[in-house]
């Protein structure tokens, strides 16, 4: 009786000459497209100018890609970044770090919230982040599913019945043959993000402007990176230098993210200014 799953899916959907369309890229784009629809719905429900979602999308795409690329080289391949900084913004865009994407997104949203039109309509930094995390959680689920299809970020060997063999994976530096069943760590994270998406959307739909500002951002950071810390124990290290570390780079970077999330949650309930109050123009209180 088969006690494991063999995953041999082709990561490429189709290609025309040198141009290739891959499942990972499609899922990555789908996160932005569906996220755009969700934010449009939220803006309509809360009386914000829907036209601003176009600008918000641009900020999100640029900050996510640049942050993820810069984070990858800064945390995992600093020697490449020092030798050729333009690698961050030049193809092929192989190598994206979720911790770098988080930093990039928070920076991009801070810049977005500083715009004159954003301030005039009450789109403060915490107003935006407390809503954008809903879409980021869904995008995280899509991206990790894309990693699974690509047979990358593979897990450690396991004898569990849902272990997966990845014949297409790149096993360079990993002293294990292709036939060893492994944790589908990508799917663990994907499902975690999907659960978080549904919870955050329910939380927003139930409380909307009555939720303390910063609470949803804090919940997001705690959930994603606390579980990321745990899931790392089921993964193979991404780069060789991590083999000499007590905690791998993903775990090290997750600790400050969790602490930041705890800070936002505590702060939001110690100073329970609601998102409605925070988003009202100066001098106007309900």
Structure description:
Helix 6 (125-149) runs antiparallel to helix 7 (185-207) and helix 6 runs parallel beside helix 8 (215-231). The strands form 2 sheets. A two-stranded parallel ribbon has the order 1-4. The protein is globular. It has one domain. It has helices spanning 23-45, 52-75, 78-83, 98-113, 116-120, 125-149, 185-207, 215-231, 249-270, 275-279, and strands at residues 5-6, 12-16, 19-22, 164-165. The N and C termini lie far apart (66 Å). It is 58% helix and 5% strand. It has 10 helices and 4 strands. The chain has 286 residues and is mostly helical. A hairpin with a 2-residue loop joins strand 2 (12-16) and strand 3.
Topology:
Blueprint: E1 5-6, E2 12-16, E3 19-22, H1 23-45, H2 52-75, H3 78-83, H4 98-113, H5 116-120, H6 125-149, E4 164-165, H7 185-207, H8 215-231, H9 249-270, H10 275-279
Parallel strand pairs: 1-4
Antiparallel strand pairs: 2-3
Helix pairs in contact: 1-2, 1-6, 2-4, 6-7, 6-8, 7-8, 8-9
GO biological process, one term: lipoprotein biosynthetic process
Function: Catalyzes the transfer of the diacylglyceryl group from phosphatidylglycerol to the sulfhydryl group of the N-terminal cysteine of a prolipoprotein, the first step in the formation of mature lipoproteins.
Organism: Spirosoma montaniterrae
Mean pLDDT: 88
How would you classify the helix and strand content by structural class?
Answer: mainly alpha
**Sheet having the most strands:** 2 strands, parallel
Instruction: Specify the number of helices.
Output: 10
Strand order of the largest sheet: 1-4
In percent terms, what proportion of residues is strand?
A: under 5%
Number of separate domains: 1
3D shape: globular
- How helix-rich are the residues, as a percent range? 55-70%
């Amino acid at each position: 009786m088969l006690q494991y799953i063999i995953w041999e899916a082709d990561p490429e959907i189709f290609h025309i000459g040198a141009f290739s369309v891959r499942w990972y890229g499609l899922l990555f784009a789908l996160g932005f497209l569906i996220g755009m629809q969700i934010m449009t719905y939220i803006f309509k429900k809360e009386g914000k100018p829907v036209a601003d979602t176009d600008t918000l999308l641009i900020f999100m795409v640029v900050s996510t890609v640049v942050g993820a690329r810069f984070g990858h080289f800064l945390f995992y391949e600093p020697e490449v970044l020092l030798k050729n900084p333009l690698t961050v913004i030049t193809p092929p865009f192989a190598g994206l770090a979720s911790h770098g994407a988080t930093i990039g997104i928070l920076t991009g949203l801070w810049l977005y919230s500083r715009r004159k039109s954003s301030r005039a309509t009450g789109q403060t930094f915490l107003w935006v982040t407390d809503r954008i995390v809903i879409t980021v959680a869904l995008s995280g689920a899509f991206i990790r599913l894309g990693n699974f299809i690509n047979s990358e970020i593979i897990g450690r060997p396991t004898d569990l019945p849902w272990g997966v063999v990845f014949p297409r994976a790149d096993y360079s530096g990993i002293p294990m043959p292709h036939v060893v069943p492994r944790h589908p760590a990508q799917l663990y994270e994907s499902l975690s993000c999907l659960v978080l998406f549904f919870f955050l959307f329910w939380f927003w739909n139930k409380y909307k402007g009555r939720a303390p500002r910063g609470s949803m951002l804090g919940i997001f950071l705690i959930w994603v990176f606390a579980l990321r810390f745990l899931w790392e124990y089921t993964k193979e290290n991404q780069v060789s230098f991590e083999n000499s570390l007590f905690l791998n780079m993903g775990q090290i970077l997750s600790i400050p993210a969790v602490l930041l999330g705890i800070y936002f949650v505590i702060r939001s309930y110690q100073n329970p200014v609601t998102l409605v109050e925070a988003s009202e123009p100066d001098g106007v209180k309900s």
